[in-house]
Amino acid sequence: MMRTRIAAFLVIGYTILLVYWMFFGFGRHAPDEDTPYRYNVIPLRTIADFATMRIGTTMDQWINLLGNVVVFVPFGLLIPVVRSVRVLPFAGAFALFILVLEILQLITRRGTFDVDDIVLNTLGACLGYGILHGVRHLLIRRK
């Protein structure tokens, strides 16, 4: 019971931190009205551009591709502790949650709407889910 409460507290706190990062962190601000808004609605376009170094530096590549995965791993580690959930409903609900945040970025013009962020963020949460269940499986087998 205590473990569930701690995990819930961590999920809430981490969500608040990530929402801050997505909308206000890293010097983000609403662009001038004259500045065109950048967005991507073509699946795998940004991923391919960074993976093949068509855009950005090596550091940009690591931040965009790996960062968008790793930062969301804690959700996959913590949410199943708070509430038992199967992987497909978890992935679907998580992708929907990220879609809402991406749409809010589009509406507020803070950050950049990118369909690939939904893919990478959901991949990160599912990776955390897989790690948690893998560790649980190993611990059960050891008993």
Task: Note down, in words, how this protein is organized.
By secondary structure, the chain is mainly α. The protein contains 6 helices and 2 strands. The chain has helices at 2-23, 45-51, 58-70, 73-82, 87-108, 115-142, and strands at residues 39-40, 113-114. The longest helix has 28 residues, at 115-142.
Task: Please tag this protein with its features.
two-stranded parallel ribbon, 143 residues, mainly alpha
Give the topology, please.
Blueprint (H helix, E strand, L loop, with lengths): L1 H22 L15 E2 L4 H7 L6 H13 L2 H10 L4 H22 L4 E2 H28 L1
Parallel strand pairs: 1-2
Give the rounded overall mean pLDDT: 92
The shape, in one word, is globular
State the order of secondary-structure elements, H for helix, E for strand. Answer: HEHHHHEH
What is the strand content? under 5%
Query: In total, how many beta strands?
Result: 2
By DSSP (H or I, 4+ residues per run), the number of helices equals: 6
**In which order are the strands of the major sheet placed?**
1-2
Share in helix: over 70%
Instruction: State Rg.
Output: 17 Å
Instruction: Note the gap between the termini.
Output: 22 Å
* Low-confidence residue ranges: none
Structural class: mainly alpha
Largest sheet: 2 strands, parallel
Could you give a short description of this structure?
Helix content is 71%, strand content 3%. With 143 residues, the protein is mostly helical.
